[in-house]
Amino acid sequence: MGTTSSLCGFLANYLFRNCMKVKQHPFKTFVPLSAIPFLTTAVTYKFLVTDPLSSGDLTADMSILRGACVSVLCGVFHPSALAFLKNGRLAVKYETVPLPPRGRSLLHWTILCQSAAKLMVIPMIVQTVYGGHLAFMQHKICERIFEMLEHD
Hints:
The protein is an all-alpha fold. It has one domain. It contains seven helices and no strands. The chain crosses the membrane at residues 30-49, 64-85, 106-126. Keywords: Membrane, Mitochondrion, Transmembrane, Transmembrane helix. It is a multi-pass membrane protein.
């Protein structure tokens, strides 16, 4: 799941760079936006899904819900927010897009990047399905292990 969230970070960065017409410092944004989501997703999934499943505290429904939530929050929203902020700073620094009026900067940037945000719905759906499926499969594996331990 960490790999797919790093790919989502890469895609979000590409889309927001194109919306904000940022051409400078590609490695300054692409490298962190592929590494940080990977690490965040892997650690969060381990603490919220894998460890409770290993201890037998989660049901199948809760594991699917937690897996889907972790994949959406850490796999799509976190990289999208990072890409929006990093590329917004570069766009302001190099003045690649017109500056927003005072006091309305968030609205200005949101309207400017509306098409990129809409395109991020596709990876969000894929991440949700993938995270839920991965958590369900992991729950089935843990159930089999617990059954084998009970028989011995």
